[in-house]
Design a protein that fits this description.
homodimer, 227 residues, mainly alpha, 11 helices, 68% helix, elongated
Amino acid sequence: MGNRLEPVTRHHDEKLQEILKTSAKIFAEKGFHRTSIRDIARAREMSLAGLYYYFRTKEELLYLIQERCFLNLLQKWERAATADMDVRSRIRVFAENHLGFFLHNMYEMKVMAHEDESLTGEFQDKILVLKRRYVKVLMDLITELGNQENGQGVDARVATFSLFGMMNWIYTWYQPKRDLPLPELINQMLRIYFFGILKGGAIQEAWFTSTNSGTGKEAFSLWQNSP
Amino acid sequence: MGNRLEPVTRHHDEKLQEILKTSAKIFAEKGFHRTSIRDIARAREMSLAGLYYYFRTKEELLYLIQERCFLNLLQKWERAATADMDVRSRIRVFAENHLGFFLHNMYEMKVMAHEDESLTGEFQDKILVLKRRYVKVLMDLITELGNQENGQGVDARVATFSLFGMMNWIYTWYQPKRDLPLPELINQMLRIYFFGILKGGAIQEAWFTSTNSGTGKEAFSLWQNSP
């Protein structure tokens, strides 16, 4: 039984991924509230009935997009960060993971930034839990760094959301053809964040060489199984 | 004639400001496309005919909100920056101006972040001109700083939009009751941006004392004439 069901389940999941990818693109371009299920059906060349086999409401689609993003980010982070890294390296890996993921999933990035208030009820609660868990990872790292440095540190919330802000704002300005390629972009942002723009962040280069962990396209696309 | 007209004009402008302020709040909460002119009429306790005396379309409202923001920001910046300041101080003043303005106009901040693609045609073109002019102010300052430092500098676009990102992201997380008051928030963000989070940005404190220029509430509200 299990063997016979498996291909069907995998097919279902791949199909759902394609639908979510298309939906994220349309939500990003038209906005969630202005998008109709009909728009998505048209783009995917599916019937409405065919679409509704994979989800029940438009809101569930938005929920599934956001859930996959957070689960993916958390999973990749847990794989990338190892116990032997010092806290600065772990912050760097977190940022590489976050930026790399979103640069390959820009529509999802925009949807998450713009539609974080479009979910209601249980969907909203569940995403909030994931979001808090994800934010807490970075805030804990920054608090740990602050304790180590033992200086008149920076407020952990300001430091945490400053980094998220730098990174998440990218969807508003980044043009792949005009701007730096991903590894350099990450490197420059982290130099600013760790060392500041004075002297162009050029301090302690030694430990700052990028690990290049997971900056490849394959590793990052949320939708690697899709065409 | 001029004297007799003036009070009428001033009244017209004050009334329009109130309408724009209310519209920004509703656009921020419901989204531009989901807001109807009826929503605004209800909130302002005005008739539809009364409202349409001040503007012609909902899109014009959005345009006027964005135009006022950019003109206000540019005007305040030109007043605040003086020729005798070094480039670092001018960057600090730019950031103080930007953050101070938006912390007192959070609805407008959110509308500008979320609805920058909702304008079309001439409205869109005009706002784009203002936006580019505003972004160019900061980018020129950062380029000047980079030339002075003469190091293997940070990319000007990355540095410029990193600062905008840190600042503009605030509308997603800042809670006045929980977080640092405005002058400290600005100070901390600038310490991160100039010196980095390592050592909590605690370098060269001497020149870094806030100028406190225009961090008062009065100086910053876009709608100072409104109740």
